[in-house]
Amino acid sequence: MKIPLFQGVMIASFVLAALIGLFVFATHTNTSGTSTTDVGTVVIWGTLPRADMQSALTAVTQSNPSLKGVSYVQESADTLPADLATAIATGNAPDLVLASQEELQPLSKLIAPVPLTTLPVATYDATFAEGASIFAAPNGEGYYGVPFMVDPLVLYSNRAILSSSGIAKPPATWEALVGLAPSIVTLTPSRQVSRALIALGTYSNVHDARGILSTLFLQAGVPIAQYVNGVLSANLSGVSGSDSSVPGQAALGFYTQFADPSKVSYTWNESLPDSQQAFLAGDLALYAGYASEAHFLSAANPNLDFAVTPLPQPATAAAKSVYGLLYAFMIPRGAKNPAGAYQAAALLTGSAAQEAAAPLLGLAPATLGALSNAPADAASASAVAYAEALYAKGWLSPAPADTDTVFSGMISGVITGRLAPDRALSTSESALTALLQK
């Protein structure tokens, strides 16, 4: 198919500008993340809160004036792919997109990957945390994004509830957590929960259910989604080859047991309020939430005395894993200043910039260099986030709202008895695959 002359010139111009940008990325970054070259006007569309991101940009620009032309516009994660497609079609695309892997699949067709000739695999792996590999484009096309920050799930604990129940420290394993139920859970004669251990088992009123359920699957060795012969498909069972075990069913059974009134681990049901609000009210001993929520929890209830520790792991796990939101800078097709965009992404992912921005965003850096300088207070939310960022993982999912619909249906089917666990898994797997291949 012949390309019209004008279109060909535009494509050539974009490629040339991108190559210039790639050269800048490869040659003008250093460990301090500073530069003497002005990046020009760079507009970032992102899903992180505007106030926090603006504070981070201001802090970084004070030590690196070359970023003074960078501005930030907050976008809704739900509408970002559609908004970006419209902007590209009308010639109004931003220069950078800042989003997590949860938006990556819907955005991927609108993003220009950084080729491996510019950012080799060895360099990428040596620079960024392990979970950043999720931004690798299929078929060796390069990387969809330059990793920026990580927001892992952590465990928040109500110190007063634990200490009054004779519990010295939060559980480090899921098995230990289940064992705390008899000491903490308070039930009425009609089996209603008046004080809960942790919000697990249901979906709609578990504040970060998508991430928690993803963690349990990943910890069980279930990929959730993977490429098979070049095609992205869901895998919720975790079964491979002749293996007769079904780790996906084990993960699903573990999660739903907390909403089963017949189990000793019963602690949560659909009649209870949103789990974040229950924790703030002092009615929930443990709360699984993102590290970035620490700022909000402290501000929402200054009298709430809580601790932050890593999310529990299976007692038999050979290696740690936790679900996290991995944010990266991506260059959209049609960016007006791709050279400046690449340079800005490189500067903002330098160690000095990451260390300045992380506390303002309530997140952990994505670069190994910055993660090696963890906050001195090992018990702080930041220190826990830094530690978990090293083993945080994600998966290529459909749009978050679509994933919630599938996961919610799966959990509801099991806890109401409408679906056996194996049937719930297979139905959800088919639904996810259909969404991933749309």
Explain what the structure shows.
The chain is α/β, with parallel strands linked by helices and 438 residues long. It has 2 domains: 5-150 and 324-393, Periplasmic binding protein-like II (D-Maltodextrin-Binding Protein, domain 2, 3-Layer(aba) Sandwich); 152-323 and 398-436, 3-Layer(aba) Sandwich (D-Maltodextrin-Binding Protein, domain 2), CATH 3.40.190.10. The chain is 40% helix and 16% strand. Strands 1, 2, 3, 4, 5, 6, 9, 10, 11, 12 and 13 form an 11-stranded mixed β-sheet that branches. A two-stranded antiparallel ribbon has the order 7-8. A hairpin with a 5-residue loop joins strand 5 and strand 6. The relative contact order is 0.19.
Main sheet overview: 11 strands, mixed
pLDDT averaged residue by residue = 90
What is the CATH superfamily classification of the largest domain?
A: Periplasmic binding protein-like II
Percent of residues in helical segments? Answer: 40-55%
| Overall spatial form | globular
Low-confidence stretches: 1-32
The number of distinct structural domains comes to: 2
CATH topology description of the largest domain: D-Maltodextrin-Binding Protein, domain 2
CATH-defined architecture of the largest domain: 3-Layer(aba) Sandwich
DSSP summary: helix tally: 18
Rounded radius of gyration (Å): 23 Å
Strand content: 15-25%
CATH class of the largest domain: Alpha Beta
SS elements, strand count: 13
Subunit organisation of the chains: single chain
The structural class is: alpha/beta
